[in-house]
Design a protein that fits this description.
This protein is an alpha/beta fold. The protein has a domain of 267 residues: TIM Barrel (Alpha-Beta Barrel). The chain is built from 16 helices and 17 strands. The chain has a 5-stranded parallel beta sheet. A 4-stranded parallel beta sheet has the order 5-6-10-11. It has a 3-stranded antiparallel beta sheet with strand order 1-2-3. Helix 6 crosses helix 7, helix 8 runs parallel beside helix 9 and helix 14 packs antiparallel against helix 15. It is globular and about 60 Å long. Its cofactor is Zn(2+). Keywords: Cytoplasm, Glycosyltransferase, Metal-binding, Transferase, tRNA processing, Zinc. It catalyses: guanosine(34) in tRNA + queuine = queuosine(34) in tRNA + guanine. Belongs to the queuine tRNA-ribosyltransferase family.
Amino acid sequence: MDTVPKEVPIPASGSPASVEDATTRPSAPLQYRVVAKCGVTKARVGVMSVRHADVDTPVFMPVGTQGTLKGVLPEQLLALDCRIMLGNTYHLGMRPGTTVLEKAGGLHRFMGWPRALLTDSGGFQMVSLLQLAEITEQGVRFQSPYDGSECMLTPERSMEIQNAIGADIMMQLDDVVKTTTTGPRVEEAMHRTIRWLDRSIGAHARDTEQSIFPIVQGGLQPDLRRACAAELTKRNTRGFAVGGLSGGESKDEFWRTVHLCTDLLPEDKPRYLMGVGFAADLVVCVALGIDMFDCVFPTRTARFGCALTRAGQINLKQRTFAQDMRPIEDDCDCSTCRTYTRAYLHHIVTVEPVACSIVSVHNVAFQLRLMGDMRDAIQEGRFPAFVKSYMAVRFPDDTVPQWIRDALAAVNVQL
């Protein structure tokens, strides 16, 4: 491994949690403290301090799979006060590869991003690229989607790639199965995930700078989730993730699994729900005690001409917006809403490449602002009222889905 690159100073953004210089950061690679709790639900506000940023939680983390957020520049993310984003170990390990990443001094420098990074382990590709993969106890043998060559991703290789990337938070390689899977394969994957965690910890070469998060697996079976969480929490890690959801299961099964897992995980460490990004899901899962989220949804839906609002997603391609001179959202202060009308965006979405960038900026801003609004509501003791108000706008005329009613009722919020 090359010597560790010097940390990049954090640009001041006017927010107290982002103005520290990297040289003044605490020596531990991750520290987490809860600063406020909702008195009714399991929601809480925390500060997660890593080498490159102080991250206020609950937080939504935009996904930059290939080391770039599609359609959004790093400086635009900084202008939105985004503190943390994602990269993907599998894809970055394939291209550009560890040699280039090490030569560049890590992904922060390679992509020009001075704040926090989290990397997925590559395990999700077991599901998304299953036709190209063979899973064994050793690891996952992939056929590269780039050139067709074969490669083996093991827990050790995943750690090697993530150490080269230099992400502040790294995910263990886990054995991922679709949530609709039943039978012995689910339990097999859960136990293998635990074994792979121990191999990941053993292979981690930069523990004083980077933190591993284990991933709670077990499908939709409460007994397996309990067994997995019990084992993972025996390891001295700095945070935990809930994996294997948003893969086709019912929303009723989804929320019950999240609710169970947050009950099982330590209160003094961050809890990360992987792959969840619909706004209503974020609100519900914050109430259920989740601190961190990620999803490609905001930028992916922007490429199809869809913008996010509190009242729901709108498709700017629709003719109804052809003469609409309002911004996407009247109370949004992002650069898109300050500059462009719905009519203009209707004219260019899915036609002009720049439209992807313009709408993506708003969609990411929407997600970040929603999380900030929830943090404010929790700290001010009005989170249950915020949830009720949000759901009334998002689902007018008493159309709130039953799963949301049930999930919120489980944490004492009656709609």
